[in-house]
């Protein structure tokens, strides 16, 4: 329960909130005609400003990419009638349960929720006290530093000391209070200032001096223990402190966001915070955090892929009509083909050959595809994987002998012999080598997948290899991490290759990848 | 209609009473499921108590748990109902009646074998229906569930529509091996149960392993949290945490150091590569370097 927040937040009871919320929706709901029909129905039963706000909230969720249907909107409107409005957590989970049906969307939901239903009291109004530094919220800071009376502001040192104590004891309430105070003092927020939230965050955190905080905290812990810690204990303490500092960071972020919302209005704020959903993040331009999230998401995806592939192979129910057997069988019914027979597909054991470009230009994509290759190879017996830059090497072994994906990828990157001349992509040469060394093992059961951007640095294309592969193999697919509109621009020679492929796919995001899996397998 | 629970708090206390420590989200969704009369779709990593939630709710309400374990290839006959054709056959042979009489007769309730879904609908006593691992059924079979989930009824061509006498609480669990259809998701409330945070996991350990000391529970959960931050094939689940805690209690361990951890970690982690990795992380001499290596 969030009852320990600054006093204004605790005051946010249902009535006070609803009057404030009423101000929000006019702007938020605005021109969107779609949700209003739903809210109208809701409003008929309970003429509440909350439903208006809910409409705006859902519109924003849709803009952020969440697929919220009309039924779900109605469910949400119904659900919030059953939870007490002053219980913010319950309110949040009621909305989440009815509106968010995919775990990966949770973060997007949370962001929008924080913007639309942030707890804020009167002092967050731009003209209010929160913008001046001389008010004293130190009554929140408990225990109060000695010698500081009600009216006197805290000094920087006091604040630092309080922060340190809060982190050391893991005191959440005090942490929140310190965050509140720190933002007030250090962020330098002014109404209408056109600066992004990250700037304020940076300013606040820099002034709090987080860099050496972790070490100082650990030193204190060591001192208190009165002996040197074992590596295990040391590690546990470190994890604990890191998580507390992380919590502080989140508190500060939330506080800044609350103030920005108060200053700029919900809709504008939601717009600036809007981020692509995990499945829409582009591999090539992913930030480090996004990459981390993607890496986590790829694992379920490959499990899905494997489940899907094996399922399909087991359950090919219907084939084409087996004319001969049907006629044969009809003899026992006096020539009436009462029981049709079908030619059932024999489950074919797919042989997959994956050829992946791991050059610098597609580095992010390559790391990602290697995960995919690894996953494919761990689920199918006949997978051979190759990597290339301007030379080409088989890495099937590296994947097979390693239990650990990160290690496998590391070994691919270090020990595969993929550089021939200068370490710039040369598809022509790499394909040539492939054909020469492994061409003989491509058969009518083989599916060949090439992963790369087809940017060939103006070398010879070697597209004849693709032509030959296409002739010999069952299917040839090309997955390209660039948008289709970039293909055949500059040194990309996608067009030359694509004429020899059964399918070319733009695979920039998880969503694209899923679509590829669905279409082809 | 009467409601089962007075409020979110009541749900939480009730679940506490049957030794299931629910957080705000879990209790809230269970409460809403009752109020809105909607099924709950529960997702999350393996071993976080998805199935246990349904069991505990049943226990809390004093209701009978009807469980449908899904698997690939499950069909109407296994999920909904089946005609007891052997009995029907006997009936036809038993007496020589006119065809009309018999044909009316053999599609009576007497010859109906109810399977879990129909059973839950027809029950007159309080029941909780658990559809376990719903992601294992094929997309086409998923449609079987839709009628029951949205309208709480089952249509049997020969008999007509069987409507629920009462609306049971329904839980569906999924391990997310495939994306469930939008139609199914739309009909459900969605609940994601993640690994619990440190505090809750400690409470869970304390509740479920009665003989454990506060101190040991604290150490266990903190180590587990650190282990979960590593990049492993399979992160330890709550049930594995409990197994580990029980092992330590049985061994009479008071304090977990690197050595004890090394000897017992196989109850926590199930892959050799994972075990090696964890041990390397925790016994590495220089804690600073191990902190950076993450």
Give the SSE order of chain A as H and E letters.
Answer: HHHHHHHHHHHHHHEHEEHEEHHHEHEHEH
Reading the helices and strands of chain B in chain order gives HHEHEHEHHEHEHEEEHEHHHHHH
Low-confidence stretches of chain A: 1-46, 122-151
Low-pLDDT windows of residues of chain B? 285-294
Largest sheet of chain A: 6 strands, mixed
- Count all strands of chain A and give the number: 8
- Spatial sequence of strands, sheet with the most strands of chain A: 5-4-3-6-7-8
Give me the Rg of chain B, rounded.
24 Å
Mean pLDDT of chain B: 84
Widest beta sheet: strand line-up of chain B: 2-5-8-1-9
- Structural class based on helices, strands and sheet pairing of chain A: alpha/beta
**Approximate helicity band of chain B:** 40-55%
Our count of helices of chain B gives 15
Question: Mean of residue pLDDT of chain A?
Answer: 73
Q: Per the principal axes of the C-alpha atoms, what is the gross shape of chain B?
A: elongated
Q: What's the count of strands of chain B?
A: 9
Cα distance, first to last residue of chain B?
54 Å
Strand content of chain B: 5-15%
- The protein's oligomeric status is heterodimer
* Sheet with most strands of chain B: 5 strands, parallel
Please give the count of helices of chain A.
Answer: 22
Task: Produce a short descriptive summary.
The complex is a heterodimer of chains A (about 525) and B (about 290). With about 525 residues, chain A is of the alpha/beta class. Chain A is built from 22 helices and eight strands.
Describe the structure.
The complex is a heterodimer of chains A (521) and B (294). By secondary structure, chain A is of the alpha/beta class. Chain A contains 22 helices and eight strands. In chain A, helix 20 (463-472) links the parallel strand 6 and strand 7 (475-480). In chain A, helix 7 (106-116) runs antiparallel to helix 13 and helix 10 crosses helix 12. In chain B, the strands form three sheets. Chain B has a five-stranded parallel sheet with strand order 2-5-8-1-9, with helices on both faces.
